[in-house]
Amino acid sequence: MASGGLQLLGFVLAFLGWIGIIISTAMPQWKMASYAGDNIVTAQALYEGLWMSCAMQSTGQIQCKVYDSLLKLESSLQATRALMVAAILLGLVAVFVAVTGMKCMKCMEDDQVKKMRMAVLGGVIFIISGLAALVATSWYGNRVARAFYDPFTPVNTRFEFGSALFIGWAAASLAMLGGAFLCCSCPRRETSYPPARGYPKNVPSTGKDYV
């Protein structure tokens, strides 16, 4: 029962992490314009994401523009896109694999060993998915931080971390933690000892065995 509860907890955490990775990938707030400087402009807030850039006016109106050409984008942004999409696809595969190996599901009930292996495999794929998302978000955040502290970057073009980065970091951590719980939910095999040999019972002598 304990391993089943740990398995269910791991799946829920990993699934929530996978949903968070999808939300983070779709959000345009990967970096937001910084107003730290002498010339502070508060009329609009600028955001940039993996797929579009947005500008929010002081009235609350948001205008977004999808990036025109894939070939015009920086190679680092293309790599971040690829890692996040790979994390989503791996998470989708991990969901189906882990569900098959869950103890509460009736799939593969006739072979418990293979069922446990499927749950562990799903956990491993969840961990890989979380690592891909963690690498993508950390790489993007490192680029934002380096550009912010670069003295040659104009003050009006500096950006800070957006909310999508924080969601991505939290989601990647949940996916890896849940995957680790799935891997640890497999019960250890008990050591099997050979059955004890039975000794013949002493039959009471009737006195007829001796001549």
Automatic annotation (TrEMBL):
One of its GO terms (cellular component) is bicellular tight junction. Coiled coil: none annotated. The keyword Transmembrane applies. It is found in: Cell junction, Tight junction; Cell membrane. Keywords: Cell junction, Cell membrane, Membrane, Tight junction, Transmembrane, Transmembrane helix. It is a multi-pass membrane protein. InterPro entries: Claudin, Claudin1, Claudin_CS, PMP22/EMP/MP20/Claudin. Pfam families: PMP22_Claudin. One of its GO terms (molecular function) is structural molecule activity. Its main location: other. It comes from the Eukaryota. Belongs to the claudin family. Claudins function as major constituents of the tight junction complexes that regulate the permeability of epithelia. This is Claudin.
